[in-house]
Amino acid sequence: MSDVLSSDRAAEKPGKRGDTRRRLMLAAERLFGERGLHAVTLKEINAAAGQRNESALHYHFGSKTRLVQAIFVDRAAAIDRVRAERIEALIGTGQEQDLNAILRATFEPLTELLDTEEGIRFVRFAAQVLSDPDFDLPTIALRSGFEGINRANGLIVAVLGDLPPEIAIQRQRLMIEMALTSLALWTRRGDAVENHAARTFFISSLFDAMAGALRAPVSEETLAALKIATK
Asked: Residue 109: CB partners within 8 Å, gap ≥ 6?
């Protein structure tokens, strides 16, 4: 996944002419990930991006909400290109009914971000967006229009065909929340990048938990509650 974030390294080189918009996005992503969306001011982002003109951020994005959306879409698009390739490869090998394989193809482009500081920065940022009431990140992901996530979603729905549609959708939301929150918590470890063995175990266990949550039998209590909720 280093190729997904390679453009960041060039943008971060001191003295490089360049893309003010990209510098603002990188600075905002880091600050938002560290402190939360509402604890960071536009003035702080401008300063962190090396912009003396305090109106630079407003000029490029218009608002903090649009800045957050721009960061997420930019990162998610790059991740989804990798996801789409892996879903295509999975279908090519006849594994489209293998839930574990589908989850790996869908989420490994995200878990592999833990290999780099740049990737960790995005994971922390995305987790902050997830926890913010102004954004519905699972819905944004499921309705994104990105090829990879749409194809993965279709495969998961087919595998979970016996579930009531409302429960299948709810479990997919839970899956996104579980993955992103768990990854963000992992990045708080002091050895998050260096301890490869522990990270491999953590990620493998996470995939097991996600598959188990999707496959779990639906209780009579849940079916009764669903019936009431959908009246």
From this structure: 1, 4, 79, 80, 82, 83, 86, 148
In angstroms, the CA 166 to CA 154 distance is: 15
Nearest to 113 by CA among 23, 29, 170, 172: 29
CB 176 within 8 A of CB 215: no
What single letter denotes the amino acid at residue 149?
A: I
CB atoms within 10 A of CB 98: 15
Cα–Cα distances in angstroms (integers) from residue 20 to residues 9, 14, 24, 78, in the given order: 14, 13, 6, 20
Residue type for 50, please?
Answer: G
Per-residue pLDDT tens digits for 207-221:
999 999 999 999 999
DSSP state of 2: G
Q: Strand locations in the chain, DSSP E?
A: none
Condensed to tens digits (0 to 9), the pLDDT of residues 49-96 reads 998 887 888 889 999 999 998 999 899 999 999 999 999 999 999 999
The DSSP line for 57-110 is HHHHHSSHHHHHHHHHHHHHHHHHHHHHHHHHHHHHTT-TT-HHHHHHHHHHHH
Distance between CA atoms of 9 and 6, rounded to whole angstroms? 6
C-alpha to C-alpha distance for 7 and 22, rounded to whole angstroms: 9
CB distance 213 to 170 below 8 Å = no
